[in-house]
Amino acid sequence: MTAEISRDTAPDLWKPNRDRSRLIEGIVKVICGAFAAVSIITTLGIVATLFFETLSFFGEVPFWQFLTDPKWTPLFASKQFGIFVLVSATVMISFISIAVAMPLGLLSAVCLSEYATPRVRKFLKPVLEILAGVPTVVYGYFALLTVTPFLQIFLPGLKGFNSLSAGIVLGVMITPMVASLSEDAIYAVPQRLRDGAYALGATKRETVTNVVLPAALSGIVSSLILAVSRAIGETMIVTLAAGANPTLGLNPFVPVMTMTASIVQVSKGDVPHGTIGYQTLFAVGTTLFVMTLALNIFSFWFVRRFREKYD
Amino acid sequence: MQDTIVMTSTDFAIQAEKVSVSYGSTLAVKDVFLDIPKNNIVALIGPSGCGKSTVLRCFNRMNDLIPGARVEGRITFNGQDIHSKQVDPVQLRRQVGMVFQRPNPFPKSIYENIAFGARINGYQGNMDELVERSLRGAAIWDEVKDKLKESGLSLSGGQQQRLCIARAIAIEPEVILMDEPCSALDPISTLRVEELMQELKQKYTIIIVTHNMQQASRTSDYTAFFNARATEQGGKMGYLVEYNRTEIIFQQPSQQDTQEYVSGRFG
Ligand SMILES: Nc1ncnc2c1ncn2[C@@H]1O[C@H](COP(=O)(O)OP(=O)(O)OP(=O)(O)O)[C@@H](O)[C@H]1O
Ligand SMILES: [Mg+2]
Known about the structure:
The complex is a heterodimer.
Chain A: H1 18-60, H2 63-68, H3 83-115, H4 118-131, H5 136-154, H6 163-187, H7 191-199, H8 204-215, H9 217-233, H10 236-241, H11 259-268, H12 276-306
Chain B: E1 12-23, E2 26-37, E3 41-45, H1 52-59, E4 69-77, E5 80-81, H2 89-95, E6 96-99, H3 110-120, H4 127-137, H5 141-144, H6 157-170, E7 175-179, H7 187-200, E8 205-209, H8 213-219, E9 222-230, E10 236-245, H9 246-251, H10 256-262
Parallel strand pairs in B: 2-10, 3-8, 3-9, 6-7, 7-8
Antiparallel strand pairs in B: 1-2, 1-4, 4-5, 9-10
């Protein structure tokens, strides 16, 4: 018995143009590669610039002085370069902002994914994402002209420029990001885990707090870390509302200067190119870069370490 | 056409009278009568989509959690209507436990997987003892006793399923619902779960959905055969064909459909 394969069409109707497909594949590959290369080269260029300019900065200012000086006065006659003056302001404001964004963002995420009906969720999620698109300068003036005067009613000692209202408004600004990303993480928790909890006689709250949130933990933490790096790098709000007065310490009621605000000050002023004052740009930029990089590496590690795999 | 058996004993754990379930506007199962005797294993069999899982989920009101699902008819648990106002579904689910088709341990330690249910139900006794007793009860203690702190997800599929059974018996329900508990398991794990069911039967009433005819005939005391027929709207509607002692269903069923299904000549 010979197995004769019968076809419905004549073989000469099938003429794949393999050469042309291969050529197109090749061209697509080159184009994609070129675009990928642009972003990689840009990143490398930024890192290299930061690195070499920072090196020459530390050629003039000892690293030890950078870490221990109690003041930040690179543009004054008596120059001091205590980076912690700026770091303390940035850390404090980021801390306040995350203290606002974490409860607000997480609670809205839980409400959206667990309590809202599908129709409400479908409507509110995009609204939340639009909120993330409000220009930061608007938030900045909101902090300066609305939140600060309002807070001064209760806190008479509060200065016109301060970390508190900058931090609060910054927190409001990053809340949609926390909410949206955490909501994705919570939504991705498989329904059968919830069913498992309900089948044991768990209430909705018990299910959410004991099963759903722990299962979404890695996604929630990475959303928080992403939000913190966003807060650390945020410039407009802190420049407008927290002032430009380098102060060491963690007092949220007085004007301070964050790392980003110091970069604004140097780059918008007429500080001559090549002077030590100008080079602080890169020293501060590198510090900022190292901080956010460390956070992102931590988040990467955390997600890999704690992510639960549900096939 | 319904072939309801007359039991001499009135000892039923669950009774379903004329139960129909619809999802949205489509009727999924219609007019099911089912009496589940205590300390027995009842198997629900039938082709895919005939509503076995749907019926099973009625008994612990898991259908409440599905938007659009509606259950009609009367279901009693120990003589009480489970849809009456006095019955809290959360409380009902404590007494009517469930094991799902796909093992679904929580992403917590093995210990916490067991302790969770006990804790939310206000268990005041010694937790270590309860965890050990439940894991022994589910025949998995020896395999996990040295790694109680490890994640439940680190176990094999078969172990995960027995962990889920342990989790279900930890809260000491009266009835355990099992929806194809062995469908993701290898033959050896399947056999262990079946042996386990025979032991659990002493203390619990078990309702199991299965596609495995041998499993139904090996393990169960009663078998309910469900089928589905096409409706005018073009959908499918499930119904109970026949319910009787397992040996009768498998050896001399009264319905032609049942005969064809259990002998594998179904089409
Ligand atoms: N959550 C749901 N929403 C809408 N329809 C559903 C839902 N669950 C089940 N159905 C419908 O109800 C009918 C019965 O489904 P069910 O899952 O109970 O069948 P089954 O007998 O368990 O099938 P299988 O053996 O494949 O598990 C099917 O037509 C299905 O489409
Ligand atoms: Mg099913």
